[in-house]
Amino acid sequence: MDGRITSLDIEEYPNTEVQKNQVLTLEEWQDKWVNRNTAFHQEQGHQFADRGHSVIGVEISELGIREFFTEQNLSYSEEPITEIPGAKVFKSSSGNISLYCCSIFDLPRTNIGKFDRIWDRGALVAINPGDRKCYADIMSSLLGKKFQYLVCVLSYDPTKHPGPPFYVPQAEIERLFGKICNIHCLEKVDAFEERHKSWGIDYLFEKLYLLTEK
Q1: Which residue, 83, 113, 143, sits at the end of a domain?
Q2: CB 65: neighbour CB atoms within 10 A?
Q3: What pLDDT, in 10s, does the model give residues 144-163?
Q4: Residues linked to residue 80 through DSSP beta bridges, in sequence order
Q5: How many Å apart are CA 192 and CA 204, to the nearest integer?
Q6: In the chain, how many domains are there?
Q7: Residues 6+ apart with CB under 8 A from 145
Q8: pLDDT value at position 27?
Q9: Which candidate, 78, 84, 141, 143, places its Cα nearest to that of 109?
Q10: What's the pLDDT score for residue 91?
Q11: Radius of gyration (Cα) for the chain, nearest Å?
Q12: For the chain, which ranges sit under pLDDT 70?
C-alpha cells in the first residue's frame, strides 16, 4: 500500500474559498497548448455529433481547435466572428460542429441561442474561482427548456494544490446553479494517477453532476 486515500466516502474539503484568489490568464492558458502542458486534453472526444446532434464548443486556444479537427480527421472552414474582434468560428464541413475560438465571457455577444444539452468537462474547473459567478450566469442564460446540463468537477485537498484544475465542491455548484437547477450527483470515481503526485495531493476524485430545470 502507498498510503494514498482511496475511499470514495471521504468528505469534501470544507473551505470553498481556499483558492479564491488564484488566477490564470488567457495567455497562460494558450501557452499550455503551445508547451504541450495539456494533460487535461482527451483525444477521444464525446462525439455527440456522431449521434445526429449539432454541437457547439468554445475554446480560447486556436491551436487546440485545429488539433481537434486533425485528431478527429475532420475537414473544416473558418470565418471571423463579426461581433467579437479577433475571434473566429471553425466549422466542420459536415456543418454539425462549430467551435468558437474566443473567451466564454464574450460568447453571449454572438447571439448564439439556447441549448437543450450542455456537457461541461474541464470548463468549470478551469475558470478562475473569482469568475465563476459570471461564468454560471452566462451558462444559465444559454439553457433552453427542459435542459440537461452535465458538469464534471474534481475533488481534492485544495490546500495542497493551487490549481488549475481548481477544486469545485458540491456546495459551490449549489451556490452557482441551485436557484434554477435541480442538482444530482450521478457518479464519483477515483481519478488519481501517478502524475498527480507532483501536485502534492494524495487523492483525486472526479464527480459528475446532472443539472435539470426546477
Answers
A1: 113
A2: 22
A3: 999 999 999 999 999 999 99
A4: 88
A5: 5
A6: 2
A7: 114, 116, 213
A8: 73
A9: 84
A10: 96
A11: 18
A12: 1-11, 16, 29-46
108 and 171 share one domain: no
Element (H, E) at 145: strand 143-155
Among candidate residues 59, 143, 150, the one with its CA nearest the CA of residue 103: 59
Chain centroid to Cα 52, Å, comes to 22
Classify residue 115 by its DSSP letter. E
C-alpha cell at 93: 464541413
- Burial pattern 92-103, b for ≥16 Cβ within 10 A else e, equals beeeebbbbbbe
Could you say which DSSP state residue 96 is in? S
Report yes or no: 71 and 38 within 8 Å, Cβ to Cβ: no
Q: Are 99 and 65 in contact (CB under 8 A)?
A: yes
Number of residues in the chain: 214
In single-letter form, the type of residue at position 152 comes to C
List the domain range (segments joined by +) for residue 169.
114-213
148: region left, alpha or beta (phi > 0 left; psi from -120 to 50 alpha): beta
- Residue 189's DSSP bridge partners are 206
pLDDT at 40: 47
Q: Does residue 173 lie within any of the structural domains?
A: yes
105 and 151 housed in the same domain: no
- Output DSSP code: residue 133: H
Q: Which of 97, 41, 32, 102 is nearest to 67 (CA)?
A: 41
Q: Which amino acid does the sequence have at 103?
A: S
Instruction: Give percent helix, percent strand, percent coil of the chain, each to the nearest 5.
Output: 25, 30, 45
Same domain flag for 102 and 119: no
Q: Which residues contact 136 (CB under 8 A, 6 or more apart)?
A: 176, 177
